[in-house]
Amino acid sequence: MDPVRGQLQPRERRAQMAEVLNLHGLWVLENDCHGALCFEEGHPPFRDLIDPQRLLVLGAFDKTIGLEAPFGYLLSRHSRPLWHEQWVLRSFRLPPVRQKAVARLYASGQLDRHLHELRSRLKLRMDELSGAVELYLGDEVQFLRPRGGASLWLESKHRVDTARVFNRLLEQRIVVAPGELFSARGLHQQSLRISGTVDWAQNIESMLVIVRNALGQERL
Questions:
Q1: Phi, psi of 126 (to 5 degrees)
Q2: Do 79 and 149 share a domain, yes or no?
């Protein structure tokens, strides 16, 4: 899953990519830090299509369990001495009690139940946010409803100065992420990402009106 846009590649496209990678014997590094936040049940991960002998899977627990579990992991069928050494050194810097707690969550099955509830809540929130964005920002932006994750990727229908939009919103204590932050080459200058994990006790509609006004005021 694309963690920025919350979108999934079509199954046919993924199968074609996997076929080419396997045919040429290429190594694949899959970043699966957000894979568990996919809303669609039964959507197989890309790694299931790849030769496991040439596969590395990088993941983390903080996106699913929370900041109380700031642990990453690397899955591989190969045991390289350098990897093992680095992971052992890292393990001594992390509280063993937390590591044991994460292990017990997995072993007990509680994490699976937690993820099911988490995905349901996230989907509900993202559907609500998507509807509000369509209502209040429909004349200013376009977007695809996310199929996972906790954010919306918005593309402006008009040319705007997103840096000035960001500063205007920051003055109102509203934080968005300019699209160019997600590109090493400064692309996506007409895009921005908003989070769905906001405090829903606040007036979300008023915040979106402020975003709409900022986009309108900074048209080029």
A1: -70, -35
A2: no
Whether 62 is in a domain gets the answer yes
Among 94, 217, 100, 109, residue whose Cα is nearest residue 158: 217
Q: What integer pLDDT is reported at residue 193 of this predicted model?
A: 94
Based on the domain organization, do 76 and 96 belong to the same domain? yes
Structural domain boundaries enclosing 23: 11-108
Q: What is the pTM of this model?
A: 0.85
Contact 180, 189 (CB under 8 A): yes
Q: Judge whether 32 and 58 are in contact, CB under 8 Å.
A: yes
SS3 26: coil
Cβ-count burial 113-123 (b if 16+ within 10 Å, e if not): eeeeebbeebb
For residues 104 and 138, state if they share a domain. no
Q: What is the DSSP letter of 176?
A: -
Between β-strands 151-156 and 191-195, what pairing exists: parallel, antiparallel or unpaired?
Answer: antiparallel
List pLDDT tens digits, range 181-205. 999 888 999 999 999 887 777 889 9
73 SS3 class? strand
Using an 8 Å Cβ cutoff, are 18 and 50 in contact?
yes
93 and 41, same domain (yes or no): yes
2 within a domain of the structure (yes/no): no
In a shared domain, residues 28 and 62: yes
